[in-house]
Amino acid sequence: MAQWLILIEEQEVVAALIDENGELNVGKARDWGGKDKDDLLAVMDACLGDCLSLSGKEEEEKLPAIFILSPYWVGEDGKILETRKQILKEVCSNLRLTPLGFLVDDEALATLYPDDFSVYLGENYFRIGAVTAGKVEKRAKIEKELDFGVDDIEEDLKKTNEEKMPEKVVIFGKVGDRKDERKEFKYLNWEDFFEELVKLVSEKKEGMEGAEGRESEEGEEKEKQKGTEEKEREEEEIKEDEEITVEEMPERKAFTESQDFGFSKEDAALSEEGKEETVFVDDIKQEEIGVEPEESKEALAEEEKEETIEQKKHFKFLLPKIPKIHLPRFRVKKIIIMPVVLIFTALLPFIFWFFSKAEVSLFLTPEEVTSEISVKLDPKAKISDLAKGIVAGEKVEVTVDGQKTVATTGEKLTGEKAKGEITIFNRTANGQTFKEGTILTGPGSLWFVLEADVKVASKTADLVSGVDRWGETVASISAQNFGAEYNLAAESVFTLEKFSKNDFLAKNQKAFSGGISRQVQAVSEKDRVNLLKSLSDEITEEGKKKLFAIVSNGKIMTESIKLELVSSEFDGKVGEEKDELTLELSAKVSALKLPEEEFLRIATEVLKGKGEGLVLDLTTVTTDFKLKEFKDGAAAGTLILKGKVRQAVDSKRIAESLVKKKRAAATEIVKNLPRVYRYRIRILPGIFDFLPYMPAQVGNIKIVISE
Description:
It contains 13 helices and 38 strands. The protein is α+β, with helices and mostly antiparallel strands. The chain has four domains: about 200 residues, no CATH class; about 70 residues; about 160 residues, no CATH class; about 90 residues, Elongation Factor Tu (Ef-tu), domain 3, CATH 2.40.30. The strands form eleven sheets. Strands 1, 2, 3, 4, 5 and 6 form a six-stranded mixed β-sheet that branches. It is elongated, with a radius of gyration of 46 Å. The two termini are about 30 Å apart.
């Protein structure tokens, strides 16, 4: 009998099907959200469908399944967490799975690789299992960026193993391109992973079969003798009392505590039926997840026989004992039974005719279609006219205020200016007045500034010596800039701006002092420009969120979003000594909206002609807009529409074609429908499932369409 192996990680599901020939079919790994049971149900259904497609096998009712779970689904007591248990219960019920039990992924690998650490790779995290002598001693979950690599794994492996790299590590999960040639690492893709599990299962099964052959002979003999005595005693009671004894299968609890579902290496006692259909291993734990087991009376008798053998040999049998329940004995004339059976048999076709129903689920392959049209989104337009490329849009607007502070990056020279006194000499025959701020140039082309107006007398003749006496006056000057280089030595010579040194010059009698300089942080023009852009981008993003929040009926054309400044204020000017610069900004953020009704109408008109006999699924339609020009409040660009179409299905015609058909013929009809990649036929209620025919009335056949 075929059997499922289903792995459920925190954000990933993989299924494998072991068919009747022992061949392994591993489906595609699929992601799920990690919490929503409906999400898990949909993903698992797709995974099971992948396996069935690979195997070429049609879906069967109630295939047994072993679950391989993340350790975070299981509590410290070894039982599945209550919330996760409820999810599995619903999944098994909806997908018609018969749960045999569960494994924890890293514990199973620890059995196969008793000396190797294990690492499961997720999308943005990885989980380390530290293994000692075949047992997972501790676990560590490390959150990482999406592009984490082998070096990150090695670093955290060392942290988990007392700063030493483990000698061997088994890596599985989302391996992708993270493989490298390190000798410590062994990589398992999902096919390898499930093949290892099958190997584990096979080894355990062979060991159990051998144990049963060696240890059950004595118990079987005594059971046989005991069964014969009980049978003779019951026959005597029936004969004497002329009564009919009715024995019922007791109902299992829909949900019980977690129990081991396996045997130790020394203990094994399997029925012949169990050998053929059920796999038992040390590491599998049973969880009755809400699906009642289907057991025949023969299976119960076999189970009781096993229990007797175990009591004899002190075996550890961990399934709950199913007691016999004897209903009260009624005196019934045997002659009454036959007419009742005949009447029921005669009425069965009529009951089937009027009350049987069928649910036919068709899984269709959707096709994605895309169309691009050049349009102008115009809020002034009343209606859209695709022939002219006009689409009626609506303008939506919000006001957003923001403030941001950044460190300044500019530099400014500051300090103290050198000062001193000079004597200005006039070698001309005329007096001269020099205004405050007059520039004097000293040694090294250093500039100084006259601090006040100064009048210098003309030269005078010296009759005694016969040499002219220059006119002179004392004045104060200061350096034009900061710096110690302006501290000039005495007797330095200065010239005055716009005057020849042959007419006027100056000297200092004493050295200048006080000149110092230092570099400080200051506001630069670049600081102001970058801060304005950064805060504008943040306000635009905040405005975008507000626009999407207030628009419930329609599509925001993202590229039409526009920012209009209302006010801006910096707390520092360019060149001002400051360590930080703050900007307060107020702006209006606007965009063009395509109303929902208009959007769906355009999508239907544009995409409907993509294929004959195809139906557009409006729930899958998405849109994008590439802006070319924004002018007079209208946005011109390319409108991109995407959606999924599927084959149009005439449910009534399909139902009519299935009426009264044999199940095999109905299967062929459904299988050959266009674009159907998977199907499911269910007869309801279940009591009619054994009949080989479809319902006789069209109204009782329901066609369900899914992707």
